[in-house]
Amino acid sequence: MTDPGDIDAAWLPSAAFRAVGSRRVLVRAGEGPQAGTVHSELAEACARFGGRVVPDGADADLVLAPADVDGLGDEGFTFERRGGTTTVTASGQRGLLYGLFHVVRLGEDAFTGERAREVHRPALATRMLDHWDNVAVHPVMGQVERGYAGGSLFWADGRARGDLDRVRAYGRLLAACGINAVAVNNVNVHATEAHLLTDRIGEVAAIADVLRPYGIRTHLSVTFAAPVVLGGLPTADPLDEAVRTWWAEATRRVYEAIGDFGGYVVKADSEGQPGPFAYGRSHADGANLLAAALEPYGGTVHWRAFVYDHRQDWRDRSTDRARAAYDHFTPLDGRFAPNAVLQVKHGPMDFQVREPVSPLIGAMPRTRLAVEVQATQEYTGQQRHVCWLGPMWSEALRFRPDGSVSAGRLADGLVAVSNAGDDPFWTGHPLAQANLYTFGRLAWDPAADPRAVLDEWIALTHPGAPERLVDGLHAVLDGSWSTYEKYTAPLGVGFMVQPGHHYGPSVDGYEYSPWGTYHFADRDGVGVDRSAATGTGYAAQYAKPWSEVYESPETCPDELLLFFHHVSYGHVLHSGKTVIQHIYDTHFEGVEEAEEARRVWEGLADLVEPARHARVAERFEEQVRCAREWRDQVNSYFLRKSGVPDGRGRTVY
Ligand code: BDP
Asked: Is the domain of 620 the same as that of 606?
């Protein structure tokens, strides 16, 4: 059973350091913040487990040392084991830090047998978490917008926390799964938070100081209207000289406070946030304004592509919300500065349990892109339901816009909206930690098998766990995304959630609102016609072969059918079932699977630390209740709309 004191340590409980800490370790990490971390981690592990940090020249079981290896970059490292010595080399201290955590992950395996030299380096340069944290508690959204893990890790009582120990522990967890960037405030920048950029930058600097030793650069969400709301200028027009000067000066001061500041995150002209459209300027003009201010210091602007009009109904094909990001941004390809990164949600809508990959990814070859996913489970059970998102993210990362199978690079970065908060288990649902960990590891290596990453998380978090616990955890997590999909909105149609907070079912909750999130169910059929021939034309935003695959209901994958097509209830899927029978069956199955997962968890009570077991058990009660509610609402709704009875006689009017 895990030591209760280790709950806070998540996937870095002290026992995870046993193999490293019981060895003779020689470390030449040099000087600097991350080198300091390498030294202190090793010293602490050795003190705990009886190993020794030995001086240069002495015999050692583990050597960590600098080396000049071509192409490693400052985060890569090499790993090998020969003649009884395990050696990690890197060209910089960051690489040594990642190398150390690699050895920790391997445990005893790192000290067994011989291993030829392996080169490890991150596939993506930016591996980032965006925190949607408000400094002040927002009257509607609370402190953390779409946060399901308590309050903010960074902010309390209207300012940066005085005690940043937990931020330090967080930084350590993030480094151990490869994350190297954090944005510390909400993309919706409210009045209080706007000041973090100027008179309150010292608070951001205090957080940056604590994250730096873990190789994490701090970023800030800023409002495009900052020159007006903070600088008192009459305009925020990106082409106005005074505006440019204001940003240059504000940014100079930011770097005075935080020398390695990562840059800005901007949500502009979206859901009420100000942006360049107000001045008749393009989003490239907007992004380049901030890019120019950051450029002298090596900073980056992450400019979000989540731009759509949320106050329109479905008037004509051009108002399909799925089209918006592509329509807005593809004409601007090639016009963004080299240090501007367009941050694109992985799907065209908004973090639904099933969406196609955004056609914008792959359509902007001359623009740097980062893909954004949502670890916080806004639409996937809000950390009351277990929903491990590894397979979903992996599918998105493996998608090739041109249908090829090559692992060509799609983006420079991967960003997740963080699911962590000041909750004792970090993520509200203790098992949601697996999402955070998997995100970091997939950002390091998007080609990794997510199930292997899950097993890695299980092993690290529960060192020495008996097989029954390992298997039980795997059973509960693996497949949980598919279970969630089964009992919620069917076949890629999305939403059907309660408006506002987005938890629980409401089939028509958004059906007649201006947000553009419709399912178009009537007595004859359901789904959104996004074909080029008869629908919104969204399918044509893809390159071949996908434009053709999605265009026809005959070739469209079942799981996306209702995203792309409006079909009759009797339409037969590739699975051989009709759409209506699929809806009935999956909703029954989804509930049964959730009940089964709850049963598996109950059976692990003797192996899991009681507080953690109780927290998960309580969440399972809610998940099963909510899954039944989804099943009953969705099935009754479609029974009544279609008049087609359940072939297995389970649903009644
Ligand atoms: C939506 C959330 C909203 C966010 C928005 C965004 O409901 O709270 O502000 O995304 O990404 O999913 O900006």
From this structure: yes
Q: Is the CB of 164 under 6 A from ligand 1?
A: no
pLDDT digits (tens, 9 = 90+) for 165-179: 999 999 999 999 999
Atom from ligand 1 closest to the CA of residue 141: 8
548 occurs within a structural domain: no
Active-site residue flag, 249:
no
Judged against a pLDDT cut of 90, whether residue 437 lies above it is answered with yes
Output the six-digit token pair for 613. Answer: 């077991």
- Ligand 1 within 6 A of CB of 355: no
Q: 461, 140 in Cβ contact below 8 A?
A: no
Separation CA 289–CA 285 (nearest Å): 6
> pLDDT band at residue 69, thresholds of 50, 70 and 90?
confident
Look up the CATH number of the domain holding residue 509: 3.90.1330.10
Atom of ligand 1 nearest to the CA of 146: 8
Distance 269 CA to ligand 1 centre (A): 13
In the structure, what pLDDT confidence band is assigned to residue 70 with cuts at 50, 70 and 90? confident
pLDDT for 313? 65
> Span 577-597, mean pLDDT?
98
In ligand 1, the atom with minimum distance to the C-alpha of 186 is 9
The reply to whether 152 and 166 lie within a common domain is: yes
pLDDT in tens, 477-506: 999 999 999 999 999 999 999 999 999 999
Please confirm whether the linkage preceding 545 is cis (ω < 30° from 0): yes
How would you write 177-193 as a 3-class SS string?
Answer: CCCCEEECCCCCCCHHH
**Whole-number pLDDT of residue 409:** 64
Nearest CA to ligand 1 atom 1: 350
Residue 510, ligand 1, Cβ within 6 A: no
Instruction: Provide the Cα torsion 34, 37, 43, 46; round to 10°.
Output: -100
Is residue 8 included in any domain, yes or no?
no
374 with 231, same domain?
A: yes
Q: What does pTM read for this prediction? A: 0.97
Fill in the amino acid letter for 258. Answer: I
559 lines ligand 1 (CB under 6 A): no
Please tell me the distance from the alpha carbon of residue 166 to that of residue 13, in angstroms, as a whole number: 15
Who's near 514: CB < 8 A, 6+ residues apart? 310, 311, 312, 313
- Alpha-carbon span 131 to 146, nearest angstrom: 10
* Residue 132 Cα to ligand 1 middle (Å): 9
646 a catalytic residue: no
The answer to whether 603 touches 472, Cβ cutoff 8 Å, is yes
Do the strands 133-138 and 24-27 form a parallel or antiparallel pair, or are they unpaired?
unpaired
Phi and psi torsions of 283, nearest 5°: -70, -20
